[in-house]
Design goal:
Distance between the termini: 64 Å
Structural class: mainly alpha
Number of helices: 7
Strand content: 5-15%
Number of strands: 2
Helix content: 40-55%
C-alpha cells in the first residue's frame, strides 16, 4: 500500500453579507446575476398593500383612505402615499413582479416615481 496525497481541494470564493437583517451567501462574480434576481420583500409587500387598498376602494369595501388607515392602524398620509404604488406603469410592474427584477431605488423613491408620466418611470426605477 503506497501513501499518496490523493486529496483534492476545491476552493469557491463566496461572500457573506447581510440583507434585510438576514445573512446571505453570495456566489462568485460571474454568477452574481442570478443572485440579484431576488426581489426586496419590502417592495413586494408595499405593492401588495397598495393593490389591496385600491381594490377595497374600487369595490366599495372602504369609502375613503381614512377608513383604510383606521382599519389597518396606519396614518392616512402613509396609506395615501403607499397607494400611489398601485398606479405604476404596467411595464414597471411587470419587471418588478413577473421578472422579479430588483429596482435600483428605495420604496420611497419608487413612490416618487409614480408622479412621473408612465414613459419616464422605467428610466427612473431601473436606471436604464
Amino acid at each position: 500500500m503506497t501513501q499518496t496525497n490523493a486529496t483534492t481541494r476545491v476552493f469557491i470564493p463566496l461572500t457573506h453579507r447581510r440583507r434585510n437583517g438576514r445573512p446571505r451567501i453570495l456566489p462568485p462574480e460571474p454568477e452574481a446575476h442570478f443572485q440579484s434576481r431576488s426581489q426586496d420583500p419590502h417592495i413586494l409587500r408595499a405593492l401588495g398593500r397598495a393593490w389591496a387598498w385600491r381594490r377595497r376602494l374600487e369595490t366599495g369595501e372602504a369609502a375613503t383612505i381614512q377608513d383604510i388607515a383606521k382599519a389597518e392602524k396606519f396614518t392616512d398620509r402613509f396609506v395615501s402615499r403607499m397607494m400611489r404604488l398601485a398606479y405604476l406603469s404596467p411595464q414597471v410592474l411587470e419587471r418588478l413582479l413577473v421578472w422579479r427584477e430588483p429596482p435600483s431605488v428605495s420604496v420611497n423613491d419608487l413612490i416618487d416615481a409614480t408622479y412621473l408620466p408612465w414613459a419616464e418611470q422605467m428610466g427612473r426605477v431601473f436606471e436604464v
